[in-house]
Amino acid sequence: QVHLIESGGGLVTAGGSLRLSCVASGRTFSSYSMAWFRQAPGKEREFVSGISWSGASTSYAESVKGQFTISRDNARNAVYLQMDRLKPEDTAVYSCAARSASIQVVPALYNYWGQGTQVTVSS
After folding, report:
1. Could you count the other beta carbons within 10 Å of the beta carbon of residue 34?
2. How far is residue 44's CA from residue 51's CA, in Å, rounded to a whole number?
3. HSE-CB of 74 using CA atoms within 13 angstroms
4. How far apart are CA 30 and CA 84, in angstroms?
């Protein structure tokens, strides 16, 4: 079992930055691929970024490439999402997710989810 808790969301003006954190419980965190998804009002949940268990492999949605950076610290059971040059269209609830296999972009393939943290970008 993996329990995930996100933090770091908030209100920021366009062009600003936020760093999201996701801390996991459980001894096997380092064996899980981790990902960040987001869901804006009235829209489907979408993949933002993922990172392999070792951190050696990362993946990004085209819409955030060069803007967001994912990282993880297995010693702290944590995964991070550094979000720079934020835009109003980045406004969403951001959730982290875990799966015991390779990174996937389909939400249904993830076994564990956090509650989410709200990110609001004002223009």
Report:
1. 28
2. 21
3. 14
4. 26
Model confidence pLDDT, tens digit, residues 11-44: 999 999 999 999 999 778 888 999 999 999 999 9
Across the strands, what pairs with 19? 82
E strands present in the chain: 4-7, 10-13, 18-24, 33-39, 46-51, 58-60, 68-73, 78-83, 92-99, 112-113, 117-122
CA 70 to chain centre: 7
At 81, list the tokens.
């999402």
Q: Which residues pair with 83 in a beta bridge?
A: 18, 68
